[in-house]
Design a protein that fits this description.
This protein has twelve helices and no strands. By secondary structure, it is mainly α. Helix 5 (about 65-80) packs antiparallel against helix 7, helix 6 (about 90-100) crosses helix 7 (about 105-135) and helix 8 (about 140-165) packs across helix 9 (about 170-185). Bound molecules: protoporphyrin IX containing FE. Protoporphyrin IX containing FE binds near residues 136, 145 and 229.
Length: about 260
């Protein structure tokens, strides 16, 4: 006799609402399986066929996806922080202190934002190292490697600009030292420093510039380039992991 659970499952999965979201049942042939992939926006991120070896957790350690999830966490917590933070030299520090001491869950939102930022830098660097050691930067993926380099720079830029926002001694002096280092770059160094600072020293102009870069320009750049990066992974046929022919595995005694 059909169990209550099965009946409930059938009732839900045969309903019109369910079928308007999930248009294919459990596919039992290759054609239907590829249809499921190409007609679903989330599955569509993967190519219809992927390399079996690249699916192993130890191939990519999911570091790219981990970086993307950390970016999402940063966006959500960052928007929450924006409800309180005021980018003015007279208010920035006290609004940060209020967030930590009086606003419900403010400390949690701030810590999540800070920790995710540190972890994202680490995850992106490890992801880049993984791509390098698996040789996944080779043709046809060179362009995506370049997109990745810009993503790394934007990730570091987001951390650098965010560092000034609490407007405490640490941020003030870190940005003073950081922008001084930038001024030693050949030819454009001192111009870059004045553009970043909005003057000759760290002040209100710098704070508002760093804020605009931190909450709008860099995140927009990241969203656009992460989308391009993922789309390229798909168009390049998924992750690079080459299938190793059986005979070679045997010769190298690598067979599991
Ligand atoms: C915001 C930073 C980044 C995000 C969110 C991101 C995301 C991803 C994701 C989700 C994948 C799919 C595979 C995986 O999970 O490993 C991927 C693949 C790839 N990424 Fe990134 N990535 C970032 C930065 C970088 C950097 C810094 C580089 C190198 C300079 C890079 C180069 C590549 C390449 C070449 C692939 C294809 C790898 C393969 O075919 O095996 N990415 N990325």
């Amino acid at each position: 006799m059909e169990s209550t659970f099965n009946r409930a499952t059938n009732f839900v999965t045969r309903s019109r609402v369910w079928r308007s979201f999930f248009r294919h049942g459990m596919p039992d042939n290759e054609m239907d399986r590829s249809l499921v992939m190409t007609t679903n926006i989330f599955f569509h991120l993967h190519p219809v066929k992927v390399n079996r070896r690249s699916l192993r957790v130890t191939y990519s350690f999911g570091l790219g996806i981990i970086s993307a999830i950390l970016f999402l966490t940063l966006t959500v917590t960052g928007v929450l922080l924006m409800f309180y933070y005021v980018p003015a030299t007279t208010l920035a520090y006290s609004t940060m202190k209020d967030l930590q001491t009086t606003i419900p869950l403010g400390q949690l939102a701030r810590n999540m934002h800070r920790w995710s930022a540190h972890l994202m830098v680490l995850a992106v660097i490890l992801h880049m190292v993984r791509v390098f050691y698996t040789g996944a930067y080779k043709p046809p993926r060179e362009f995506n490697w370049l997109v990745g380099v810009v993503l790394l720079l934007l990730t570091l830029g987001a951390s650098f600009t965010g560092y000034l926002l609490p407007w405490d001694q640490l941020s003030y002096w870190a940005i003073t030292v950081g922008t001084n280092i930038a001024s030693y770059a050949p030819v454009l160094g001192s111009t870059a420093r004045s553009i970043l600072l909005g003057g000759s020293e760290v002040g209100q102009n710098t704070l508002i510039r760093f804020y605009a870069l931190h909450v709008i320009i860099i995140p927009l750049g990241l969203i656009l380039l992460i989308s391009l990066h993922l789309w390229r992974v798909r168009k390049d046929g998924g992750l690079a992991g080459q299938e190793i022919p059986e005979e070679r595995l045997e010769i190298a005694s690598l067979k599991e």
